[in-house]
Structure formats: structure tokens, C-alpha cells
Amino acid sequence: GSFKEGERVLAYHGPLLYEAKVQKSENKEDEWRYHVHYLGWSKSWDEWVTNDRLLKLTDENIRKQQELEKSQ
């Protein structure tokens, strides 16, 4: 998978990106899925997401997160 367990990432939840932590990963039928915990959110929001919902935590992607927040 592209993301490691314990890695901090940016995850799409609706139209915005939030900081999250990958807790588990699994490969089902050639598709990676990741169980993420949104930082600062209660565990009831934890969920399985596919690769296309996640971004690496980089300066560039943090800028993207800020742009999305501004455009709301």
C-alpha cells in the first residue's frame, strides 16, 4: 500500500481534507483500504477509506487543504 500503519495523512471527508492517522491497512481484491482515525475527532468517526481519499502529509498538500477551507 501507499500508506503505512501509524502514518499521518490528509484524508478527504466530504469536500475538505482533515489530518488523520492510518491505523490499519488491508488489501482486498487488489485494492488497498485504510482504517483511519481523524485527529481530534471521536473514534466513532473512524472509518475504512480507499487510496483515493488519502493524500501524503506534505507542504503542498497542506496548502491544498487550506485552499479548500478558504473556498467553502
Write a structural description.
This protein has 72 residues and is of the alpha+beta class. It has a domain at 8-56: Roll (SH3 type barrels), CATH 2.30.30.140. Helices cover 17% and strands 47% of the residues. The protein has one helix and five strands; from the N terminus they run βββββα. The protein has one helix at residues 59-70, and strands at residues 8-13, 16-28, 31-38, 47-50, 54-56. It has a five-stranded antiparallel β-sheet. The longest helix is centred in the last third of the chain and has 12 residues, at 59-70. The chain starts with 7 loop residues before the first strand and ends with a helix.
Number of strands: 5
- Helical amount among residues, as a percent range? 10-25%
End-to-end CA span = 31 Å
The CATH topology label of the domain at 8-56 is SH3 type barrels
Mean pLDDT comes to 96
Q: Any guess at the CATH architecture of the domain at 8-56?
A: Roll
Structural class: alpha+beta
Residue windows where pLDDT falls under 50 for at least 5 positions: none
Counted by DSSP, the helix tally is 1
Cα Rg: 12 Å
Q: Report the portion of residues in β strands.
A: over 45%
User: Order of strands side by side in the largest beta sheet?
Assistant: 4-3-2-1-5
Q: The biggest beta sheet, please?
A: 5 strands, antiparallel
CATH hierarchy class name of the domain at 8-56: Mainly Beta
Estimate the global geometry from the Cα principal axes.
Answer: globular
Q: Return the string of H and E elements.
A: EEEEEH
